[in-house]
Design a protein that fits this description.
alpha+beta, Glutaredoxin, 4-stranded mixed β-sheet, 26% helix, 25% strand, globular, binds FE2/S2 (inorganic) cluster
Length: 102
């Protein structure tokens, strides 16, 4: 096992976006735009030059499945984790403000 703490120290914020896909008939973030939201957020971080300090990761089920939108968690060094669900493309700007706040 290799300790990569020094390699990961540039990460100030890590955003997890559920893109989990479940069988037909069951709610899942993949069907509700999770993958598109993940890609849009990843592109915005690149465009804004924040990709090295603000990481975005797609995940499996985060345990908050619903019929409205995807589940997102924001981890920030030294602060409590923020959790959001029912996130849709319309929420990108408000979620972005949460991601880039100091
Ligand atoms: S499938 Fe995304 S929270 Fe369960």
């Amino acid at each position: 096992m290799k300790d990569i703490k020094s390699e990961a120290q540039d990460c100030k914020v890590q955003v997890l976006v559920c893109t989990n896909e479940r069988p037909p008939g069951k709610s899942c973030c993949h069907k509700l735009g999770g993958q598109d939201f993940y890609l849009a957020l990843k592109n915005r971080l690149k465009q804004e030059g924040l990709y090295n300090t603000h990481w975005v990761t797609r995940t499996g089920c985060l345990g908050f499945c619903n019929d409205v939108g995807t589940t997102v968690a924001i981890y920030r060094q030294g602060q409590s984790t923020q959790w959001f669900n029912e996130v849709t493309a319309a929420d990108m700007d408000s979620l972005w403000q949460e991601i880039v706040r100091e």
